[in-house]
Write the structure tokens for this entry.
Amino acid sequence: MINQRNWCLFVCTFLFATVNAQQITCSPADKKAVENKIMEIDGLLENDFGKTIVAIGKTFMGTPYVAKTLEIGDTETLVINLQGLDCTTYVENILAFSLMLEKGKAGFDNFTETLENIRYKDGQLAGYASRLHYFSEWIANNQKKGLLKDITAEIGGTEITKNIDFMSTHRNLYPFLSDDENFKMIQASENNLNDQPICIVPQNQIKVNEHLIQTGDIIALTTSIAGLDITHTGIATREKDGRIHLLHASTGSMEVEVSELPLVDYLKKIKSNTGIMVARPSS
């Protein structure tokens, strides 16, 4: 596992001119890793965008799982880190590289622009609260951008209501929430989430609807934990056994892997899991 403190000591900050100058935090090694990854994935483009996503996702196999790689520094910046990934940053990076390959784009600047668009509300970094912290909101906002479609309702999903307030009720877990303005803005985001239901495929309905899930779909695990919508995410991949497995940055093996068990059986081992949300990326 990467020593995050040592990594941060070597972090360098770049300023790129977009509509507004945007701060990016990236180590020299990660900048090089982005450039190398762009070269590595050249030739992996498939006619099926989902297969492109999985092909690119599997190039990260064995990459260490590292939590809270975005929670660094004193202000929110676009953190680029390919040396250690959590479940969400793994999905974000894979989607960014896949969209670039599909659109024939290359280069570090294009990557950072694509990643910012995915990670932040309406594609614009505007402080800590602009990051899409709750994954159900991540799905909804990226659907609004046209990057994916929430297909949960189409594959057997049902609407539920749940109070989402984990961040504001666990303020001590999030260093940026020591700032009162950030805290109030996160509360506002939670209130917006609580104004609308979310759709999930319940745990006992996943197996019968598994055939409707396609390789490359984004899978988000819903939970019974109070205040939370999603606890984990990854990418669906239909393997040689004909079953859907989960390609993800695993907290079990502490690295990127394909789940040994099919998704349905993998989920049964997670006591707090209640079902899944499924989003299909758009090329």
Remarks:
- The chain is about 35% helix and 20% strand.
